[in-house]
Amino acid sequence: MTTPPLSRTSFAAFASATAICTLALTGCGTTDTDAPADTKSQASASCADDSSTTSADPVSVTDDTGHEIKLDKPAAKVVSLEWQYTEDLLSLCVDPAAVADAKGFTTWDTAEKLPESTTDVGTRQEPNVESILSADPDLVIIETTNRKDKIVGQLEDQGIPVMAMAGADGEDPVKYMKDTFTTVAEATGRTERAETVLADFDEKLEESKKAIAEANPETTEFVYFDGWVNGSNVALRPFGQGSLIGELGEELGLKNAWTGEVDPAYGLGQTDIEGISKVGDANFFYTGTDDPESEDYVELLKKNDIWANIPAVKEDRTTAFPSGIWTFGGPKSSEQALDAYVDALTK
User: Do domains 8-32+202-346 and 45-193 have the same CATH topology?
Assistant: First the structure.
């Protein structure tokens, strides 16, 4: 079984689940003080025209574990151990000193372009500490809610400041995405740039909301999902209440029709074909990125009679979002998602 990529903490939550709901494709059953070095990057298209300044002031930021990180000057050599923070750094025009899973980032997060020369320090779940130390970072950003995380301890034992971020907040995922971006900006002295990026996001949100209102779609209910194949079974993962991509849809005036149980941080559910068939007339949106390590679950869905009789399928209201939109990303990934919603509902 190969599941779609998860962020580090959502992967841990997923791995601890006691069961995965699947449905056989042929079946019918269901289961319910020097100035910092110039860190401006040319990776982001908008960075080429960026004129914002980088602060040289000392840094004091508090991460999501309540730990205060104090730096004599903004971090210039930052190692990112999760794709969201890699994207955020690039949006801030900061080239990461090293990242976890560079190849995966280029596949699953196309909001920003990672320089090809960027050092890869291994997987996001189990990064190589020696490789991280070799990058000589003045800050490492990791996704964890546990200050006693093994990687955090190993790095701090070597005197490396570590900023631990939760990765998500199901209470207000859009606000959390923006707050996380601001925290990364504060740590790198790039708050002026952050203000511009967030203003662009807010403008995009308002434009997108207006476009959908003017289009007046026949139904505003939707379900966003991804999935994977497990033998002859297909499993689906709806993004329900508390998910970033689901909340972005609701910010546009749409209604997330998935009411099943979801995890409290990421808003992710688990279901099967019959389970998702119970959402009525909702539009279906799904991740369009081809997973190089997995069979195409969408092609297998098309062979299932239950799937074929779902209203959204029968009426051609299923839309794959463009490849490379990271559903756990920052402002730029979120802008991509907004564009995808608009394109799907105004075509």
Answer: yes
Cα-Cα-Cα-Cα torsion 162, 167, 252, 43, nearest 10 degrees, comes to 50
Q: Tokens for 48?
A: 């080429």
Per-residue pLDDT in tens (0 to 9) along the chain, 347 residues: 456 777 656 555 544 443 333 333 333 333 333 334 444 444 566 899 999 999 999 999 999 999 999 999 999 999 999 999 999 999 999 999 999 999 999 999 999 999 999 999 999 999 999 999 999 999 999 999 999 999 999 999 999 999 999 999 999 999 999 999 999 999 999 999 999 999 999 999 999 999 999 999 999 999 999 999 988 889 999 999 999 999 999 999 999 999 999 999 999 999 999 999 999 999 999 999 988 777 899 999 999 999 999 999 999 999 999 999 999 999 999 999 999 999 999 98
45-193: CATH topology is Rossmann fold (3.40.50)
- Kind and range of the H or E element at 182? helix 173-188
- Residue 181 · residue 196 · CB < 8 Å: no
Q: Where are the domains of the chain?
A: 8-32+202-346, 45-193
Q: How far is CA 252 from CA 39, 173, 196, 209, 341, in A?
A: 35, 14, 21, 5, 9
- What is the distance, to the nearest Å, from the Cα of residue 278 to the centroid of all Cα atoms in its chain? 27
Cα Rg of the chain, angstroms: 21
End-to-end CA distance of the chain: 35
User: Measured between alpha carbons, how far is 73 from 319 in angstroms, rounded to an integer?
Assistant: 46
Strands, E assignment, the chain: 23-24, 59-62, 68-71, 78-80, 98-99, 119-120, 139-143, 162-165, 221-230, 233-238, 255-256, 283-286, 318-320
Decide: 246 and 266 in contact? Cβ < 8 Å.
Answer: no
Class of the domain covering 8-32+202-346: alpha beta
